[in-house]
Amino acid sequence: MMGHHTSTGHLLRGLLGSQKEFGLTEEQVSKLKAIQLDLDRTRIKSEADIMVAERELEALVEDDKADLAAIEGKLKQSEMLEVGLRMTAIKARRDVMAALTPEQRQRIKAVHERMRMMPDRDEKGTGMGHGMMRERGQGGSSQTEPKKESKP
User: How far apart are CA 41 and CA 44, in angstroms?
Assistant: First the structure.
């Protein structure tokens, strides 16, 4: 379920974490925090709804007597929840960019381009593609690395 909502959330965290560097005004910070809260609220609810729909789908698929129309309906429900979440993230990103000055938008584009040019940092699941910002001490867990079994 990673996608637009994680990249928009990452953009918001980056902006709010670097508000002085980007020259954000108090009004901009307030708008961005409101957008972030709305996005988080929608993301949390939507991801929970998607997980429930997927578990219900699994139960239907495992039931040999389940109607194929019911399975199709559950598939469509899950997909539409994902579409809704992605659209919310796209709208939030547009709202973020609209809250910024043209100069701030240019700076974001420049940072984004620099990030794209960096070597792949995602080899061990620690890159930004997983929504983690270990460089800033955010995200990550000791559970992200598989435990090595000791050999006798």
Answer: 5
CA–CA distance, 92 with 5 (Å, rounded to integer): 9
- Burial status of residue 15 (CB atoms within 10 A of its CB: 0-12, 13-18, 19 or more): buried
DSSP 8-class letter at 101? -
| Spans of the chain, pLDDT less than 70 | 1-5, 120-152
C-alpha pair distances (Å), 149 with each of 105, 140, 141 = 48, 21, 19
Separation CA 114–CA 46 (nearest Å) = 32
Q: What is the pLDDT of residues 57-99, one digit of tens each?
A: 999 999 999 999 999 999 999 999 999 999 999 999 999 999 9
Token output for 42:
């929608």
> What's the CA gap between 115 and 121, in Å, rounded?
10
